[in-house]
Each structure stands twice: as C-alpha cells, then as structure tokens.
Specification:
The structure holds two protein chains of two kinds. By secondary structure, chain A is α/β, with parallel strands linked by helices. Helix content of chain A is 25%, strand content 20%. Classes of the chains: A alpha/beta, B alpha+beta.
C-alpha cells in the first residue's frame, strides 16, 4: 500500500482517498463546515485547510478536496494552519448574528463548537452586520438567511440527492444567500433533511421550534411508522417522571409530559443512507391526538360504557366462544391494517388461527380478485420481494409499474435518483406521470386508465416471447392485441435480462402475478412495495387467508377481505375482529362494506383512534401506537428491524401484543408473555425465514467523524439489521385473463394516494397545512370546461345523485376525464362512489358562491 | 477557683454596656450584604419586555435540576420578549434550589438575578414551586445588578443581549446614512 506522511507519521492510504478521509480515520481532527460525507465535495468553507508539501512545493490546500498521493507531507497543526482556521472563523462570523440564546441550533451548532476550539475570542469587525429578509419556503422549515455561512450543504443535498431544483444559492458578495427560487412550498418530499445537513441554525424545523434544547431530551432509536420501507429514525422525546433527564420540578404539574419533540435521521446504509422523508420527520404529534381512545369500552343497550380490562376480556372471550360453538369457527373473521409490530401480528395470527380456529384473516384491501390468492405467493411459493433496496441502486434496468412512489414510498425515489445518476435505465409505467416521476424516470409509458392488467400482461408476453418460455393461459393473446388495449408502444426497450421490477401490493392480482412471473423469466428481481407499514411482517406471521405461519400454504384457505364482507352481507359472519384498520374510511366501496358491517352481531375494534368503525363496535380496545410500543418490524425487502419504546402508552391503552397475549391466556390457560422479547424469541424459533436472526437491538458501527462537529456526530453511529431468509421456488403458473369492463360517466374517479394523507397525518395538527383536505384533482382543461378554477369548491355528483362538497385542484399530468381522489376518506365519504377496484364515476357541478 | 470566675465575668461585663447584637426579628431586620443570593427574579428591559428568551442555559447549569422551561415563539405583533422566543413556562422549585447562583452566572441575557428576599417559608411543598408570574418583576423596575456583575465595571445591559426585532428598521436607516455609492448596490 502507498504511504504518505501525516503529522510526522507514516500513514497508509488507498488510491483516490482524500486527505480528510485518511486523517479522520487516523484520529487526526480537522474541522469542516461544508464537507458532508454523504454529499458531493464543495470545498467552499476553507475550514479544512492543511499544509501540504509535495516535491518541494508547500502550501495550504483544502483537505476535503485534495487526494492523497505518494510521498506527500501533510501537517495539520502548524502555526500557519492554525492562523488560517482562526481567520476563517473570524470571516464567517462577520455577518453571523450572535443570537445563540434565541437560536434553535444552540448546543448542536458546528459554528459554536468550532469557534470555541479554533476561533478568535473577539471580533475586530466594527460595522453593522448585513440583514437579509426571512423567506417562507415550507410550513415545516424556517430559514434564517442572516445566520447562513453559505456552506452549500443544503443546496447540494436538494439538487444532487433529492434531484429537485427549486432551492439554490444566488446573489453576489454580501448579498449572496440560499433559498427557494419561487414563492411556493418546496416540491421535494425530503426538504426536512436540510435542517440536519445545515451546520448551524440557518435552517431549523418548525415542529421543534423553541421547545427544548438538544441536551435535555432522551434519544430513542425507532423505525418510521409511515411506510413499509422502515426508515431508521432517532426520536427525541421529553418524558416525565422517572424516565426524565434534565430539569424536573417536584410537585409542579406538567401537561406536556410524554411529548415527542422531533424525529431525526439514523443512518442505515441498507435502508436510508441516511436521509429520511418529511412525513417521517414532521408527522409525530398524532401520539397526543385528541382522537385517541383512552379507555376500554363495552356497548350496552346501544351506548358505550366505560369499562375495565377484565370486563372487556371476559366479554370478548365469552362472545367468541358462544359464536364458535353455535355457528362454527368459520363465522369469526379478522381484519388487520398492517400497522403494528411483528410480535403483535404473531399473537394476533395465533389467536385467530390457532385459538379461535378461523382462517378468515386478512390485511389486504377488499379487492375482488384477491380472492384468487396471493399473487406473488402463487408464483414463488412465498410472498416476499426478491430484490433489496441495495439491488435497486446497483441495477442497470428498472421497471417501476403503477406505483406512485413519491406518495407512498418516498425513500425508494432517492434510490431511483441515485440509480439514474449511476446510469441505470428506469422505465415508469403508470396511469399518469408527474414531475416527481420525471426526476428519475428515463422513459415514461402511460397506459389507459382501464389498461393496467393488459400493460402488465404485455410485459410478461414480451418476456416470454424473447426467452421462449410459454405461459399457459396466454397462448391465445397476441402482444399486439395487449399493447393496443393498454395503449402502450415500444415496451421492448424496457424489458431486458436482469430487469428489476418495482410494484406495490395494491395492484390487481393479475398485474402482480404477471410482473413477478416476468422477473423470474428474465432472471431479474422484483421489489414488492407493501402498502401497509408492516405488511411484510404481518404476511410472514401468517396474517393472510392463504399463507400460514412462516410462508407455508394453508391447506384450507380462508376468506379474503372481500369475501368476508360478502359473507357478512349474507349473514354468515357473526363476529369480526378489527385490528388497527377502518374499513369504512380506508377502503373503497363504503356502502357495500357498511351493509356487511351492519349484519355482523359482534364487532371488536382494537384501535388507537376514534374512527367510523368504532361507532359500530360492541367492544372497543384502546391500543398503544407505534412510538409507544417496542418490537420488531419487517420492512418491504424483508429486513427485520427493531424499534424501542419512546413514550408511555396514552391513557389506559395497552400494546397490541399484550392484549392478544392476555386473550390467549384466558382462552387456553397458558401463561401470558411477560415481555415483548419473549414473543420475539418465539418468532425466531417458529417462523422459518426468521430462524436464527438476532433481532434486538441490531448491530452498529462508528464512522470516524470528529465528535466536536454536531451535524456529523449525529450520523456517526451506523446501524445494521439482518434480512429474513426467504427461499423462492418459482414454478410455472397459468393466467386467466378477461378484459375489464369500462364504465360510463362524464368523469372517472380514480383512487390515489397523497404523501400527507394517511391515518396518522389526519390525526396530526401540525400536518394541517399540507393535508389535501376534501381535495380532488382534475385536469386544467376539464376544470375550464366546467367553469371552475384551481382551488374552487365544487360539488361531486355520483351516479345515484349523491352530493359531496369538495375542493378542486388543477393537475396537468392526469388525463382529462379523470378525477383523482385520495385515500383514506376520513374527510369526505367519496369512497361510496368507488367500486372495490378503486374506480368510480361522477360528474361535477359548481357550488353556489356565497 | 475565683480566678476563672472573674475571667469569665470580665467578658460579660465588657459587653454589657456595648451595643446589642440581637436583632428583634421580624420587627427589626438586618441589612444583607450586596452579594446576598436569595430569591430569584426575572428582570425586564426598559421597554417592559421580558429579558428571558428561554435559552435554557440556566436549566442546564442548575446542579439540582430545579428549573424547568418551555420555550414558545413570540407573536410578532405583540412580542413578550426581545428576539423570537420567550419562556412560556419558567418554573423554579425552591425545594430543590440550593442558591448556588450558577443559573445567574449562566444567563446570557442578564434576565435572571438573585435578590435579598430570604423569607421563603411556605406551608406546603407544592407552594415551593414558583412560576414565571411569581418571579417576574413589574415593568419599570430598575435593573438589579447580578451578584456576578458586582465586580464588573459595565452597567447592566452592556453585554451583547438579544436585540429587539425592530432592528432591521435601524438597518434601513443605516443604509440611508451610508451614502450614494453603497445605496446603489
């Protein structure tokens, strides 16, 4: 290995390493402002100057941008270097206001710390400092241009990593500043990362604003509850009582105990390196929502009566036993929302499948075609993704099919951006494509609104023709026919050997099955994005009508969600357990579901929030939320991650695993589990893919960043979690295809997703400015023909003359005959207009202006 | 035997005609030294705004963790303190406080001072927790020199404290004063 001299010491280096990287690794401290290990090198702050001597020439060079070469003599502690650092800090402080007591970054400010270590004690600048105007850029960001030292970190994050262009550096000299280019809310769904990338308090978060100081709270490792990527986060919380650190006042009342103050990133190079999305970062106030259920309730004579745990357990066990004895176990059904830990899911599945003996258990939305089975399971004999998120960044050819990545799984977008930067070809197939897709897609294919299945089958057909693999059931279909029906052309370019497919599990059965089969034929991989936050974990634990514990096929399949409600309509379902899901506001076809729900004798709702289904419940059990329980969570690629408990459960609510464990104890007489780790140990013993996995608390290693730089110290410890070991055994499958009938009507309603419209955001006050509340989106031309403008309120008229007051927004990327509606439907009952596939029809009328 | 008795009584008689040490508390009170460190007060600026900006340095300096603060954003129209933030909650638990004065030493805004108010007995423990309303001085009260500043020559307010938010107006005036060339930029 080549060597060079660092502070009089012979040091080995790898070719291409910079002086800074080697020095930090060797424990030599070099201060930096603009250098960030996950961002491109800018070399603008001049704080990392070191004395370099090479071939008789000597001078100060920025160590972050200078590569080491053989025979170099580097000195980091000479008088000249020290003077350069001192003067540089004096320059940076020229226009930096000394408002540390007011600044939110006080205590975790790079400039504060480095000034203490390297800076001068006094400033010689005697003039007024420049004052720059504050800018409104985002409801959650506060930008102070006065404090900015123009290190360019936020700009390089925003433009290079997030690949958006509405934030930049402009102006000259003293007037130079960073900021948004336009007077609009920032486009990126990752803008919150700029807070942490900023070395000082120039960009601060509004959710954490002035509430606390960094040394006061407890920091707990957790996982994002918002999507199935399982982004790793650090949660900063203020906790009262014996859990507190920092000031405690004895005797005084404290209303703001148990508060989550902010959520920061926790690096995990397999999942999020280290960036997290804004939804994860800013949406956390739902834990103290006024919608929380605080007490177990039992309905007596049509009214909820406050109850205790004993009575609730007795009621549930007695009623279920009675129903099971009279009607058989098949009259009991259970639904889950996929929000909860693996431990909760394991005991939920154990309770329903083993204790009650019913296989009517599902986490999927009520799609008619999901009654056919689990699509990926039918192809691979196991329901999991074959690709990891890392594969995505290394792949050469990627096909993203039908998934609005920005709205449902934003972090996958970052992986796609970096894949494109590396030269990958990314093909996006969708009903429409917006600016978010254009950030990473190299080519966009738009299929007809009703041509989704045909588009996927065309991909499969093309793959089978090029590879000479016959597909049973598709022999009679020609590729030309499928392409015509889906309205696509030129898909040959998108499909090549080793293609990585990305699609989500809410797509039609045929689409998922075709893409999974195509990836097998092409020797490629696929990433199945679960829509439920812990969807993969729930499936692995056997919360599925067709898949048992650990991925075994159930001998007698149970009823899927759709079948459960159909059977309930006929009166075949007598008891329904609903765990963390609201079928009336989260699923389409509300009226059909409501018919079924009204027919069920006994409904147990286990949830954290009041919602519509709780009104129809006979027993309501309050559950602890994600941040209030500890447990393992399996992300969409099968990585088993661990989240610690952040705060105590609200009111009388209990963790779900504790509730199921108590219920199991009552039914069987087995002793209840004492701690969550006991359940985890049982999972690791019993579930095949998880066998031998060491779950809590995961491994970690440290990067050699200096401790005196808080913005780097926060990302110093990198975590690693193991992957579950799934075994795929692909087999030949038959396809049954029948074309979908089209609907009549002026407009087609299409169910869609929005980043800030989820069960959690609708319960967070802080999210209010970003939630599309009662909003539907229409094409600008359609708006014009209806005489409406962007932001007008209008009335949506359904086929049976139902009226819904909505706000229309213009969106140029959707087709002209489409109205885009956002699930869940807590704010408008629009799901009455949709069928089980998420389509509906409506016309639009203007409201009478007041 | 008689010798020590006389020796003792000599001292008694020596003091019997001198001025008495005993103070008839509470009718009579002794004047405390200028650096007495008793009950805290939260001071105000001359314009009546609170000096405290909820920087939480006192809370973190406190060895007994007796201070609890929650900051909040100022209403720009009607600010409570200078700068952007103010203390929504400023609680002091006298049951924990040991009057070391580190909090006063830490305060960068010279908001916190200690007075010679030492009659702090209360009937219950709960009453020992003082809130911001109990500690804040009336507007117009002259500033108290903190015990730390006793040796300092500068008057109170000479330290770089947070300026009121109207400062950008001053800056515009300054721009006008700068003359034509700079104004053109």
């Amino acid at each position: 290995m080549p060597k060079f001299t660092l502070n009089g010491r012979e040091v080995e280096f790898k070719q291409g390493e910079t002086i800074l990287q080697v020095a930090w690794r060797e424990g030599v401290r070099i201060p930096v402002f603009c250098y960030h290990p996950h961002l491109p090198v800018f070399a603008g702050c001049r704080m990392c100057l070191v004395e370099v001597e090479l071939r008789g020439r000597k001078g100060l060079l920025p160590s972050c941008a200078t590569q080491v070469s053989e025979g170099m003599v580097v000195n980091t502690e000479t008088e000249e270097v020290r003077k350069a650092r001192r003067d540089q800090i004096e320059f940076l402080l020229l226009n930096h206001p000394l408002e540390c007591p007011v600044c939110d970054a006080g205590g975790e400010c790079d400039l504060q710390n480095l000034t203490f270590i390297y800076g001068p004690s006094e400033s010689r600048y005697q003039f007024e400092k420049t004052e720059k105007e504050m800018v409104f850029a985002h409801p959650y960001l506060q930008l102070y241009p006065n404090r900015c030292i123009l290190c360019n970190r936020c700009v390089s994050f925003y433009q290079e990593i997030s690949a958006n262009d509405d934030w930049g550096l402009f102006g000259r000299g003293h007037d130079m500043r960073v900021g948004p280019y336009r007077d609009k809310i920032l486009e990126s769904e990752f803008s919150g990362n700029m807070i942490e990338v900023c070395p000082l308090g120039a960009i601060t978060g509004r959710d954490y604003r002035f509430k606390s100081r960094p040394w006061e709270h407890r920091v707990i490792n957790s996982i994002s509850p918002h999507d199935s990527i399982g982004v790793n986060v650090k949660v900063y919380a203020r906790i009262g009582g014996k859990y507190s650190r920092g000031a405690v006042v004895s005797g005084g009342t404290r209303t703001d105990n148990h508060e989550i103050l902010r959520v920061n990133m926790r690096p995990n190079y397999d999942v999020n390196d280290p960036w997290i999305d804004d939804r994860t970062r800013f949406i956390h106030s739902f834990v103290n929502s006024t919608d929380r259920i605080t007490q177990p309730l039992v309905k007596k004579e049509g009214e909820f009566k406050e109850s205790d745990w004993e009575e609730v357990y007795d009621t549930v066990v007695d009623k279920l036993k009675k129903i099971k004895d009279t009607y058989g176990a098949d009259a009991v059904a259970a639904l889950a929302g996929g929000r909860g830990s693996n431990e909760s899911a394991y005991l939920f599945s154990k309770f329903v499948k083993e204790i009650v003996g019913s296989r009517n258990i599902d986490i999927r939305p009520p799609r008619e075609d999901f009654t056919l089975g689990d699509p990926v399971f039918d192809v691979l004999d196991g329901s999991f993704s074959t690709a990891t998120l890392r594969d995505l960044a290394d792949a050469k050819n990627i096909v993203v099919f039908g998934t609005e990545i920005k709205e449902t799984h934003p972090v996958v977008g970052l992986k796609l951006v970096s894949a494109r930067k590396r030269g990958a070809r990314i093909h996006y197939f969708g009903k429409w494509a917006g600016k978010a897709e254009r950030r990473w897609a190299t080519r966009i294919y738009i299929y007809n609104i009703y041509g989704e299945e045909e588009a996927a089958l065309a991909i499969l057909k093309h793959a089978s023709e090029t590879h000479g693999v016959p597909i049973p059931g598709l022999e009679n279909l020609s590729l030309q026919d499928l392409l015509e029906k889906s309205g696509l052309s030129g898909i040959e370019e998108a499909i090549s050997e080793n293609t990585v497919f990305v699609f989500d599990d809410n797509l039609p059965y045929l689409v998922q099955k075709a893409l999974a089969r195509a990836s097998v034929i092409l020797n490629g991989k696929f990433l199945l994005l679960r829509n439920a936050p812990n969807g993969q974990g729930f499936i692995d634990m056997g919360v599925s009508p067709v898949i048992g514990k650990g991925g075994m096929r159930e001998a007698v399949p149970g009823k899927s969600t759709y079948e459960i409600f159909e059977a309930a309509k006929k009166g075949e379902i007598k008891a329904l357990l609903i765990y963390n899901v609201d079928p009336l506001t989260e699923f389409p076809a509300r009226d059909e579901i409501l018919d079924g729900v009204k027919n069920i004798d006994f409904i147990v709702v286990l949830d954290s929030f009041w919602n519509e289904i709780t009104g129809y419940a006979d027993v309501v059990i309050p559950l602890a939320l994600h941040y209030e329980e500890e447990g393992s969570y399996t992300n969409t690629e099968g990585r088993v991650q661990w989240a610690d408990r952040v705060i105590q459960p609200y009111g009388m609510s209990k963790e779900a695993w504790r509730v199921f464990s108590d219920l199991i104890e009552r039914c069987t007489g087995e002793k209840a589990y004492k701690s969550v780790v006991e359940v985890t140990e049982e999972i690791v013993k019993n579930i095949e893919p998880y066998r031998g996995i060491k779950v809590p608390p995961g491994e970690s290693f440290e990067e050699p960043y200096p401790d005196e730089i808080p913005s780097l110290k926060n990302i110093k410890v990198v975590y690693r979690y193991p992957l579950a070991r799934y075994i795929a055994s692909p087999k030949e499958v038959t396809f049954e295809y029948s074309s979908m009938e089209k609907r009549e009507g002026r407009y087609v309603l299409v169910q869609s997703h929005h980043l800030y419209k989820t069960v959690y955001t609708l319960r967070s006050e802080s999210a209010a400015p970003l939630i599309p509340y009662r909003v539907v989106e229409m094409h600008p031309d359609a708006l014009k023909s209806e005489g409406l403008k962007d932001g007008d309120s209008a009335v949506l008229i359904g086929p049976r003359n139902q009226e819904y007051e909505v706000v229309v927004r213009s969106n140029g990327s959707i087709p002209e005959n489409v109205i885009r509606v956002f699930a869940p439907y807590l704010d408008y009952g629009l799901n009455s207009l949709l069928d089980f596939k998420g389509f509906g029809r409506a016309s639009v009328a203007q409201t009478v202006r007041r | 035997m008689i010798g020590p008795l006389i020796k003792g009584l000599t001292i008694t008689f020596k003091y019997i005609f001198k001025k008495k040490f005993t103070v008839q508390y509470p009718e009579e009170r002794r004047e405390l030294p200028p650096r007495a460190k008793w009950l805290h007060i939260l001071q105000r600026h001359e314009d009546g705004k609170e000096r405290c900006v909820a920087c939480m340095l006192c809370a973190s300096a406190c060895p007994t963790e007796a201070i609890y603060i929650v900051g909040e954003e100022n209403d720009l129209e009607n600010p409570i303190s200078h700068g952007e933030r103010y203390a929504k909650v400023w609680d002091l638990d006298l049951g924990r406080c040991m009057f070391c004065g580190y909090c006063v030493e830490a305060c960068p805004e010279e908001a916190l001072a200690m007075t010679d108010e030492y009659e702090l007995a209360v009937p219950t423990r709960k009453d020992l927790v003082l809130h911001k309303e109990d500690l804040l001085v009336e507007p117009g009260t002259p500033p108290v020199k903190t015990w730390l500043g006793f040796y300092r020559k500068e008057p109170i307010g000479a330290m770089p404290v947070t300026r009121p938010m109207e400062v950008h107006v001053e800056y515009e005036e300054y721009l006008k004063r700068r003359g034509p060339r700079e104004a053109h930029e």
